[in-house]
Amino acid sequence: MGEQTPRYHRIADDLRTQIERGELAPGQQLKTEHELMEHYSVSRNTVRLALRRLTDEGLIIAGQGRGSFVRKRHTPAVWDWSILESRSRHTSDNNGDQWSSIVAESGRQPRQEVAVSIRRPPADVATKLELSTDDALTVVRERVRLVDHEPYALADSYFPEELVRGTPLMLPEDVSAPGGVLASIGLVQTHYRDEITVRMPTRAESEKLALPTATPVAVHVRTGYDKDGRPLRVMVTVLPGDRHVIRYDVPAE
Known about the structure:
By secondary structure, the chain is α+β, with helices and mostly antiparallel strands. It has 2 domains: 7-70, Orthogonal Bundle (Arc Repressor Mutant, subunit A); 77-247, Chorismate lyase. Helix content is 28%, strand content 29%. It contains 9 helices and 10 strands. The protein has helices spanning 7-21, 33-40, 44-56, 87-92, 98-105, 123-128, 161-164, 181-184, 203-209; strands at 60-62, 68-70, 77-80, 110-119, 138-147, 150-160, 191-199, 217-225, 231-240, 244-247. Strands 4-5-6-9-8-7 form a 6-stranded antiparallel β-sheet, sandwiched between helices. Strands 1-2 form a two-stranded antiparallel sheet. Strands 3-10 form a two-stranded parallel ribbon. Helix 2 (33-40) crosses helix 3 (44-56). The protein is elongated.
């Protein structure tokens, strides 16, 4: 880089290279600010600007007054969403909840924390479910999904209350049924519409998912419809960008 490149850029570039080469391993503590000042012959403010740059890039995290550490990498969960929730998968799945069984098949340990409530849906969900925002109610199943005891995703499913009243979907626990719970009560989803956006997390999402600084999330919204085009469910899944690989197989026809 040229001489006009700010010093903190050059320090950040040097530290980034060490991280990429493995010379600074995940979880390893960086030198203290004072040590970095001496090593690079720069001011404390220059060091802090360099560290902030790497923090914003998601390469290091601050350790609550204990210095900076190379960010640890999560083992990604790989999802094939072209078959997730397919009827054939539901029929052959004898291990309960599809998400849990897929995680278990990969040799990892799944767990879900489930809360159920009845409330008015957000405006965008009401629109997708073709409900009135003034008086319609939905049953909401809020799940924190954990893999190997670490939070990996938030998944909130909204159902028109009148459709699922008194069904197992009202229970605050994992529920499953051959062919899917909705199908077991006569509500068969025949097709889905997926929408995916990417954004920074809210404060509540960051806390629930224990997200380090500068971690974007993907928001996957799946609306399920019956054969007549009636919407039966909206599922909103928040996926930390450092923990997931989403895969689709799409026929080129």
